[in-house]
Fold:
Amino acid sequence: MTTVIPGLDPVRGDVLELHVDTMITHVSRRPREAGESLPFLAPGFIDLQVNGFAGIDVNGPDVSAERIAEMSVALAGIGVTTWVPTIVTAPEESICHALRCIAEARAASPVLAHAIPFAHVEGPFLSAEDGPRGVHDLEQIRPLDADEVTRWQAAGPVGILTVSPHTVDAPGQIARIVSGGVQVAIGHTHASTPRITAAVDAGASLSTHLGNGIFPHLARHPNPIWTQLAEDRLTCGLIADGHHLPAETLEVMVRAKGPDRAFLVSDATELAGREPGLYRTAVGGEVELTVDGRLSFVGTEMLAGAASEVAAGLRFVLRSTSLSLPDALALVTTTPGRVLGRDTTLRAGAVADLVTLTADGTIQQVWQHGVPIERP
Structure:
């Protein structure tokens, strides 16, 4: 059954009319009529870093294929039709268990396989220094090891790996990992400028939540933030929850990179959407969620992931920076889509993952594979 979905093109301002079943079968345009009120039409949002959501933790002891599928449904309800489950520093068997659950969930249906392209493993090859390590388990931080990554790949689909390239052997290890089909991101690092450059030369292509996972006090220059901002071969993820990066820092970073080399991530945990209070989590232990949505390790100023989602990040960008709606949308559609190797253009033949939204980023309706999704 074909449905026609109309909406405004955020770039051109005319009216798009998409004919969809599970795919977009036809696209037509027409001028906007005087007084015509329609929402904007955009591809479904993409989040490349989701640790948990709706009370479900990718890294929790009770993770399963069924729980991963539940997370996917919940995320679609807020407009995130494609997401990357993120596994953090843990024993090898725990990482492999989570990867097996993700692989099983993807095998359950074509919709899930498209919604979950692969996993992002953040750690365990990170800086052991206080500050850059964040709340990653110090006891499980270990040297960069391409052989371990190969063993993970036998368990499930690893697409992105975050590492700290601070060691002499990092470039060789990174080159091996990249040759195995995994994109390497730099993050949670105290690496020097030469070490970061060597990592990029070896094939590292991403920066994980740039500006976070780093010492709270840095040399004016050089430092790892400047190096990664200046490196055009790196596309950077940014957390736009209002806590990880102040609005002016976020704006400057996007200006430096441009919307084509920056994307928003939620870094969401299972506490996203929960009431303020003290919680015990599988990652970070005792954490506090404040009324304003800040999630931190109890007794410290260190952030323990995020309690927001990428759609809220889009709204923060639109109200707190000078970015236009088309450029802001690129941060949650086009650019992360490119990281996945996907063309997110609204064109005939594309999967019908869609959202309609207002000028301030408020989502009105979501479709996943052409099916309307119930909003929370």
Summary: The mean pLDDT is 94.
